Every structure is written in structure tokens, then in C-alpha cells.
Amino acid sequence: MEPDLRRRVEVKALAAVLDEVNNYQILKLKSGAPIPDVEKAYAAQSQVFHPDNYFGVSDAKFTKAVTAIFKKLTESYQVLKDPELKKIYDKKMGFRGVAAGAGQPGRRRRGIGKAELEAERDHDGDGVVSDKNAIKYWDLAQIAMMNKDWNGVVMNLQFALNYEESNPVLKEKLAEAKEKLSEKKEREKNPYKIKIR
Amino acid sequence: MPYAIGIDLGTSNSVVSVVKDGVPTVISDEKENRTHPSVVWFAWGRQVEGDGILVGARAAHQVMLAPEGGVYSAKRLIGRTIDSLEVQKARDVVPYEILEGPHRDLRIRVHKQVYPLAEISAHVLRYLKGLAESYLGEPVDQAVITVPAYFNDTQRQATRDAGRIAGLEVLRIINEPTAAALAYGLGANRDEYAAVYDLGGGTFDISVLRIQGDVFEVVSTAGDTYLGGDDFDAVLVDYIIGQLDDEGKQAAKRSVGARVRVKRAAEEAKKKLSYEEETTIYVGSLYTKENGEEVHLKTSITRVQFNQMVFPLVKRTFQVCDEALIAAKIEPKDVGAVVMVGGMTRSLIIQEAVDSYFGKSPAAGINPDEVVSVGAAIQAGNLLGAMQGKVNPNRSLLIDVTPQSLGIATAGGFVEKVIDRNTSIPTEETRTFTTSWDDQQEVKIEVFQGEERMIEGNQKLGEFILEGLRPAPRGEVKVSVSFEIDANGIVKVTAEDSVTRQSRSIRVEASAGLTEQEIQDLRFDQDDEAEGDSLAPSAEQTEQPGA
Fold first, then answer.
1. Nearest to B513 by CA among B93, B153, B123
2. C-alpha torsion B252→B253→B254→B255, nearest 10
3. Which residue of A83, B109, B319, B547 is most buried, as measured by CB atoms within 10 A?
4. Which of B176, B230, B231, B267 is catalytic?
């Protein structure tokens, strides 16, 4: 069964503006709506936009659009149902419900990804770095250190240094990691990689 | 109006259901059995009706008499490779020979005939399809088939291939615990978290779902593919064999028939211990001594002994539960209902352990053997309804997740995750790859499934090479590759040159599996003349030892 015209228009229009709607808008909620409302809205919107509702529809473009909408719905839901991520998101977006004085309401940005919010929740740079991007790579470098992935450590520290060129801790750690990496390369040669011939 | 059936294709037993007039019904065989042994028995020259192949209860009966012709536990092997631990384990317990096929798939040899593993499962599926057709009085071509949540892409594809060989259009592969939740919550208008504890013959799965009315959202899932009721039996088998003297142990090792009888006795004892404090184990005519004396085995075991022996297995299931609950960010007390699936959950020790872990008794009124198949039938009805645009008051929506992360190999033997586990499906992620040399013509991408950071701990799904890239300075050619997991949990990869928009769709060729041509050749529902020849391609290999 093919979807009716009204649904077609709705899906097409929504899919076209997916990058511009925020997490509340896609769920058809008021900004800052509480978590129980988020859960209900997700269930309700899924009943409209989950691709299974259009199982067997032959129009590939339509199916692709519905799938993209559902993915955005799910990602928005993942952020807004998690109290911590929701709090950070609301604050960044400058939505109500955030305590006054909890920082300057940011520019109303539309696309803040879940990964970015999670990084903010989990890490603050430990006082070593302060630039937002440097924090991200510093965190990745630390994870790599824990995993003894010296290649990853070197890579991420170099990225971090792009944002904080003269950070002494980053420089010191980079030198250490390079040493470890050359030791490791001596020890083993791993046959797996994306082979480029 | 056609029907679509729901099939729980189990390791030991299978169940088939259909939603008829809005009511889910479990379909019986002519002897009123509602579960059907997933056993195929090949007659090997003996005269039996039809093509000399028996399936279900009659096959299971024949296996007792002539075990050499029997193939069972095929699900343990489907979609696996010859060097996997599972194959090594299976070799100790099954009478048939396991070989490697030409595409790293598995084949088995029975009576000198070689069959692709998917064909064995296809025989079971065709049998179930037949039962449904006799019940409904009309042909059935569409089905939803369930798999353990922890099945990877290769295992799912192999299951779908088996369905196609059996002449079924597989509308959807769904996860067993999810199907069970669908059956549990249908039309009950609940708003709660439900946990599905699924301890089957060969696998353990736990799924946590959020149920809101008709919407069933899987929040997290975890599992152990090497843990099931068979492992509980194996503990008992070891105990029973341990009671024999050295000669007896050797004899039991040598004889397939003896092993089958000991296993049966173990299963029986396991069941009895749920309502008896102590039970007697008797295995008649276990073997014949050189002097012609028949040896019978008689021993006993108490529930306390049994519980102690299997305690490590029970404990492992709750470690997996912990994992799923942590991923769902809830605690055992937040779970509103525990749905039990799999014959092993009838066991008293499991019932008690679940009660103490979740702090509540398992949900009542659910048949752990049938609930998965009923859920599959409900989902089949949902999909059929959507296709027909029918307004179905009982329609439910299932939002499932991918149980394992999807990643690609990177330098240094690592796997970079592209799609995290427990992501709602269908989903898609795009990554951009670029050339590292001037005029580079190829990029090879290896796709893995699993949670380990190193390649070694993950399952390789396949690899593909982006070739024929246009010559350009390094870094200029950008290839964007989209990784898609569809609602079946099956992976698709599409590559596109970001500049020229030249696109190429690639199915990750399963590193182990049948080719499209092989599936077509094996299909049971070909033209009548061709039907008799459907076994021919495998029969040709008969005389190739180790093929």
C-alpha cells in the first residue's frame, strides 16, 4: 500500500529540514519539555515515522526519507531521555528550566550531537587543556593510553596540539608516546590495516 | 487474503504460529505436537515415503533407532566458520561430519552425501511451512523467522538464505526475546520496563524493553552464544559418564548411540529435579562388554548436587543481565515484568534465581516454548497489515536495536566503531575515506562486528575494495561510505565518490555463506521438473573427501 498524499508531503517536507530542527521540534514538543513527555512523544512519533509503518512501500525515496526522520527522532530521544545529557543540551540551547546564572545562554545552535554532549558530560579536560576541541582529543588520547594504543595517543595528541600549540603537558605526553610507539613497532608488525595498494 | 506465519527456528525444537482472525494460534502436527524437533533424518537407501527425508517428530524418532542419518542442532552451526569454537564443540556431540564449503560456509556429510548447512535448516522450515498450509488450507509464502538477539550478520543472512531455499519470502528476521515481549504485551496497554530472560538450548539472551501501549522499544540487549540448556545437560552427562569404570567410559565415548541415550537420560533427570529432591538415572543397554554381557547404568543425583554443579552456569546468565541493565541505565527493581523464554527456564533453579535477582516472580501464563513463535506471528501480521494498508486495531510497533557494534579495521590492528551496539534499527552512518597516495586506485575496507578494540576479538563480516578510483593527487579523491543496518539486523554498505557522485552499492559479501546462485539452485520451490534435482549440486561433491 502506498502512503497517502498528506503523509508524502509531510515526510518530504520534514526530511528536507532535518538538519535544522532541534531535538524538541522533531518530537513536536515545547522546548525544555520534561522527560515523561519526551518518552510519550517518542512513542507517538514512532507510530508515524518508523519505517515499518510503510513496509512494502515501493517508493525508495520515500522510504529513505522516513528512515532518516526516524533516525533523527531516535537520536533526539536518546539525548532528551537521559537527565544529564538533557540538562547539558537545554543549557547549550538556552532553554527554560535551566537555573538563572548557569552560564550565558548560548547562541541557539540547532545541531548539537549526542557524542558532543556525552563528551562534555564525561570530561572537562582535567585542567590540562581548555579549548573545546583540544579537550575532545585529549580525552581520546587518554583512552588510547589506557588501551596502550600508542598510535592513537600520538595521533590524538597531535590533533589536540593543533588547538593549543604550546601546551607543555601535551608536548611532554606526545614525546613519551612517540617513544612507546617506536618501541612497539619494533616488537610487532601487525598485518591488519586498510590496505592501500 | 494471504497469511504470513511466524517461525521460531530453534536449536532443538521449532514452533510455527499464525495470526488468524486477529488471534495468534500455535500450529500442531497431525499428532497434536505443538513443538517440532529441529531434526532432519535422511533415510539412506531405506524406503520411506516422499524423498526419503523426515523432519520433526518422526525424524526425532528415527534418530533414536538410526542416529547415523540424523542431523540436529544445525542452528548451533549456521553462519559459523570451520575454525570456530562452536564447530569444535559440536564435533564432540553430533554424529554427522562437519566440512568446509567452497565459500567458508559449513557443509555436513550424512551417508556420504554432502549438504550445505542452510539446506538442513531449510528442510525444517519447509516442514513448518507445510504444517501451516495444512492448517490454513492454502499456500503460505511469507514468514517472519526469529533468531537469538546475539546472532551476527552472517548468522542472520544464513537463516534468511535457509528461508529462501525453503520457498519462503522472509519478511523479517527478528530477535527471539523481542518477539517474546511482543507476545507478552500485546493489547495489554502497559507502561513499564520488561526484561526477557531467554535461556534456550544453545544460547542465552537478555533484552530490556520499554513498553508504552502498542510501542515496544528495545532499550538494550546482551547475550552469550555459548551458554544454554545443552550446557546444563553436558554437566549431567559428565556426571553420569563419571559413574562408569574406565572400560565403560571408553565405550560411551566410542558409541554414538550410547551418547544419545546418556544425553536423553541427562535431559530427563534435569527436568525431574525441578520437582523431585532426588532422582534416579537409568540408562539401559549402554554398551556390550567383550564377553557379551550388556551393561546398564543406574545412578542417582540430588537437587542440591545438581544445583551446585550448574551454579557457575546460572551465575553467568546474571552477569549478562547486569550488562543489559547497565546499558539500559536501570536497576533490577525498575523492571516491571520478567518474561521467561526457552525450555530451560522451566527449571526450578532458574525460576528461583530469576526471582531473587529481579525481586519478582516471572510473569505468569506464558508458555516459554511457544511465546517466541507467537510474537513472530504477531510481527508477521503487523508487516502484512502495513503492506495491505489495513487498519488493524491490534497493530503494534517494534523498535529493535542492533545487538553488536559495527566497525571497520584501522591501522594498528584496531577496530573503529561506526555504529554502536544498542542503536535503534534501521540506522545508517556515513564515513569518508580518502586516498593516501597520488593516483591511488583502490581502498580496501574490512567490516567487523563486536565490542573488542582489537581486530582479533571481533567477527569479520567481510571486506570490500573500492576500486577504479579516478587518478588524482592524494587526499583529493573522497569516498563516502555509508554503513546501514536494516530492520533485520543485516548490514549493507554503499560507497560513493563524494566529488563525482559515482556511487556503488555493495552488499558485504558474508565471509562465510552461500552465493546467490547456490541459493537459487537449492530452492525447493522451483519448477516441478527441477524439484527432484534440487539436491544435485551438493550430491556432486559426494566423492570429494574434505570438500
1. B153
2. 50
3. B109
4. B176
Structural domain for B263, as ranges: 229-307
Cβ neighbors of B175 (< 8 A, separation 6 or more) are: B146, B147, B148, B149, B151, B205, B207, B218, B221, B400, B403, B489
CB of B443 less than 8 A from some CB of A: yes
Q: Touching check for B463 and chain A: CB below 8 Å? A: no
Q: What do you get for the CA distance between the two ends of chain B, in Å?
A: 45
Closest approach of chain B CAs to the CA of A105, in angstroms?
29
- Reference A81, options A73, A69, A70; nearest CA is A73
Closest CA to B317 of B356, B366, B354: B354
pLDDT band, residue B547 (cuts 50/70/90): very low
Distance CA A53, CA A49 (A): 7
Pair type for strands B397-399 and B53-55: unpaired
Between B302 and A129, residue with greater pLDDT: B302
Active-site residue, B75 included: yes
Q: Helix (H) and strand (E) counts for chain A?
A: 9, 0
Residues B394 and B410 in one domain: no
ipTM (interface pTM): 0.83
Q: Where does residue B54 rank: exposed (0-12), middle (13-18), buried (19+ CB within 10 A)? A: buried
Q: Note if the pTM is more than 0.90.
A: no
CATH number at residue A75: 1.10.287.110
Which one is catalytic: B86, B119, B198, B233? B198
Question: Does residue B410 share a domain with residue B302?
Answer: no
